[in-house]
């Protein structure tokens, strides 16, 4: 499918006022919207058996309880739909007031968490078609993420290849909670397909819930559950590095989305220390682990850490690298980060360009 004709004009206009790329925008389907993108067999299956999921956000267990749709109270569209379900309202509340040049859609619908792998493949394909037709076509500033059933690498690669050359898609998306650590070789065909086709992988917090979310067991409160999402991101970074993924796929780009970032320098320092003592156990790791973080991993900013002294946050940016950071809002969720107020320290014009636009242009595939 050809790119929209006004794309170059929009890009040129954004140069006059810093066009922002928002790397984390959550769409939500209107009632019955996904069914039209499923085959008759899978419509019947879902209606009769439901989605055999292992715990995706709003559809998961009843405790700890979430605020409905995890969303801001003002994000419910005037038409009464769910937050993130109305493109016109998304324009009014996000795209226009913040001059969003591109918004990367990150569905959290559990399509790739089904234990039934055939169902997962069908749901991923349906969600991909739904994003493209219902959001990107009517609003080309939005771009879709390719949902893949990561526990079936053959089907995942097939879905990636199906979307190649389609301007509506800009990355591959998987969750930070997977059946096994994501560096394991069962997942390598996905990385091979992504690298071969110049696609980044967005690792968004969430995913399967086949085990307790923390090493200490099941949390009692939502505040605990919300916090330990970050732990899954740290574990996955360690897995990717120590299992040798970035040696095997040196041009692979990973974006860590909605998992914070202040933990990254400390993780790199600790892994470097361990690697120096035990590097003979991981011969595939040729360089200090922190170097892979600096060459293959980017970090979306939301939720922004808020230290008592804002300049401490600047120090964290400098430790990670200004070229590694991409802006994300998490719209329409309750902890939305406004690009005008989320960062409490002064930035140079160059730093703003990198954070709000240029880094994302170098990572995501915007046709």
What distinguishing features does this structure have?
single chain, 367 residues, alpha/beta, TIM Barrel, eight-stranded parallel beta sheet, 12 helices, 8 strands, globular
Describe it for me?
The chain is an alpha/beta fold and 367 residues long. The chain has a single domain, classed as Metal-dependent hydrolases (TIM Barrel), CATH 3.20.20. Helix content is 39%, strand content 12%. The chain has 12 helices and 8 strands. An 8-stranded parallel beta sheet has the order 1-2-3-4-5-6-7-8. The termini are close together. The relative contact order is 0.14.
Layout of secondary structure:
Blueprint: H1 7-16, E1 20-25, H2 40-49, H3 87-95, E2 100-105, H4 117-136, E3 142-147, H5 153-162, E4 169-177, H6 188-196, E5 201-207, H7 222-242, H8 245-248, E6 254-257, H9 263-278, H10 289-296, E7 297-300, H11 310-320, E8 325-326, H12 349-363
Parallel strand pairs: 1-2, 2-3, 3-4, 4-5, 5-6, 6-7, 7-8
Helix pairs in contact: 5-6, 9-10
Quick summary:
This protein is α/β, with parallel strands linked by helices. It has one domain: Metal-dependent hydrolases (TIM Barrel).
Sequence of secondary-structure elements: HEHHEHEHEHEHHEHHEHEH
CATH C-level label: Alpha Beta
Give the count of structural domains. Answer: 1
Q: What is the gyration radius calculated from CA atoms? A: 20 Å
Report the CATH architecture.
Answer: Alpha-Beta Barrel
- What portion of residues belong to β-strands? 5-15%
Helical content, roughly?
25-40%
Task: Quickly give the structural class.
Answer: alpha/beta
**What is the overall shape?**
globular
Distance between the termini: 11 Å
Subunit organisation of the chains: single chain
Strand order, sheet with most strands: 1-2-3-4-5-6-7-8
How many individual helices? 12
The CATH topology name reads TIM Barrel
The total beta strand count reads 8
Mean pLDDT: 90
As residue ranges, the low-confidence spans are 7-16, 55-60
